[in-house]
Write a structure and sequence with these properties.
281 residues; alpha+beta; four-stranded mixed beta sheet; two-stranded antiparallel ribbon; 10 helices; 46% helix; Mitochondrial inner membrane protease ATP23; protease
Length: 281
Amino acid sequence: MASPSPLPSLPGTAASTIATPTPTSTSPPAPDSGSVPKQQKLPRFVSNDPARTGYDPSTNWWMNYFRSVTGTMTTEGSYHFREDTYRKNEEKDCRRCEKYRDWLFAHSPTVRFLRDKITALGGTLDETNVVCQRCPGRVLEGGAGVARQSGGFSPAHGILLCANEVRDRGHLEDTLAHEMVHAWDHLRWQVDWFAQKDLKHSACTEIRASMLSGECRWTREALVRGNWRLTQQFQNCVRTRAIQSVMARPACKDDVHATKVVNEVWESCFSDTRPFDEVYR
């Protein structure tokens, strides 16, 4: 698979300052829920020990599946079982992801609109820098769960779509739109992605990406994630997801720090729907 080409950077911004995509949809242990650990407790990879976890890769798949659903396999064991399954299905998952991606670039009004707006700012998004790959999960300290991500954006590489986390084409559309908002923000403003000055840039672009991508619309929240309430559901979803993403930044101390920064920029960033006229999804 060809290496992603860099997006054109803003004047005065070095596109190589970020080496890997910034995770923007991270959630332990199930997709779209939970929190991201702070820097002092970064997720870590853990080798499987069948005696400890109950997952034995040398046995038949159906036996491990039975152990997983009957609770005789630990949470960590289920993680290793799932990761091994993802590795085996990586080629198929990437083909499906690329098929969805190409369809969205051809037919999705949101994706096509954002691509045109990015092109107008001198950027290019296509199959060379919107790449489908398998994204490994990471075990949280103390066995609290697994941190996962649906995608990420890097000025140096483009957009990463996590093929093994794609549920359906609608889910990929939300993820792609989220990362494209980050790409537009990168080209439109000099975003401080590494929070070298403060975290306000990160908080603002995360608020905008969750607000404009459609991932917080009522049907997605209520029917997929089981989160619903009579008032402020959309705002709460945007705020929660922005806080989770800010917590993943190395400069963020903890959830209190992330919440404080998001609250400081909330009013101005939540009301900024550019490049859209309003929130459509």
